[in-house]
Amino acid sequence: MTHMKLSRFFRSFQYAAQGIYAAIQKEQNIRFHLLAAVVVVLSGWLTGLSKTEWLIVILLIGGMLAFELVNTAMERVVDLASPELHPLAKQAKDMAAGAVLVFAVASAIIGLLIFIPKWF
Predict the structure, then answer these.
(1) Which CDD domains does the record cross-reference, listed alphabetically (predicted)?
(2) Cα-trace Rg, the chain
(3) What is the pLDDT of residues 48-72, one digit of tens each?
């Protein structure tokens, strides 16, 4: 890789980190999901999850955070493109939030299926 391409490659990580930081600073839902992730990781550690269970939990946590970041980005783009209230803008934002909710509910159900048998 040339120096220019390498520099651009590492700069893309910096931009991604800035996006994550901005979301954490401004979005309550991201902070909630991060707190939930900490609770799940601590619970998994105390429960003694198997390697496969850890893989599933990590995928669910990563997916949830990624969905939340995409939802936040979608909200920003919609707000920029349609600063005035518009039914289609509302639908787009609601649908993105709905995708987050679907993944959150599925993640919670999978988490319960992993943890409850180990607790009882």
Answers:
(1) UDPK_IM_like (cd14265)
(2) 18
(3) 999 999 999 999 999 999 999 999 9
